[in-house]
Write a structure and sequence with these properties.
By secondary structure, this protein is mainly β. It contains no helices and 11 strands. The protein is elongated, with a radius of gyration of 21 Å.
């Protein structure tokens, strides 16, 4: 946001109001895979929804929203995400986060390469919401210890 101040000859300050738009992640469902069977021949899939809400007071009606997802605490880049065994067994479980239901396009942090952009129409002096769907997959046949596996990723929203 930019503010313009004008200094008048009588030393009276005047400010010019600027349009404001504010967006936030309203809710994000956890990406829970449930039980993983390492002998299964098929991968384990899940999905999560991130709801973004924007409020507008002037300015453009249509907002481009861009979402990035980092590699996570146990990862080595968007294509090398790993969950770690919460019980301290030292095992890691590879998984991926994707932009498409086919789980062929990895979600990452490189703008216009592996991020997702949505357009949201927000009424003036109103609000609107958009849903980003994150598709997750654990590849099949990873021989790991039984237990609970976790990772934490950072989501960045640009508008």
């Amino acid at each position: 946001m930019t503010r313009t101040l004008a200094l008048l000859p009588l030393l009276v300050l005047a400010s010019v109001a600027q349009a404001q738009t504010a967006c936030r992640i309203a809710t994000a469902s956890p990406l829970a895979f449930g039980d993983y069977e390492f002998l299964a021949a098929t991968p384990k899939d899940s999905q999560a929804i991130v709801i973004v809400t924007c409020d507008r007071d002037g300015g453009p009606q249509v907002l481009p929203l861009l979402m990035r997802i980092d590699q996570g605490t146990g990862g080595a880049g968007p294509g090398g995400r790993r969950m770690t065994h919460a019980g301290g067994a030292g095992d890691t479980l590879s998984y991926g986060l994707y932009r498409d239901v086919a789980r062929s396009s990895v979600w990452g942090t490189s703008d216009n390469v592996d991020t997702v952009t949505l357009s949201l129409s927000v009424p003036n002096k109103g609000s609107a919401s958009a849903n980003f769907t994150i598709y997750g997959r654990i590849p099949a046949r990873q021989d790991v210890s039984a237990g609970f596996y976790v990772d934490r990723v950072q989501i960045t929203l640009l508008y």
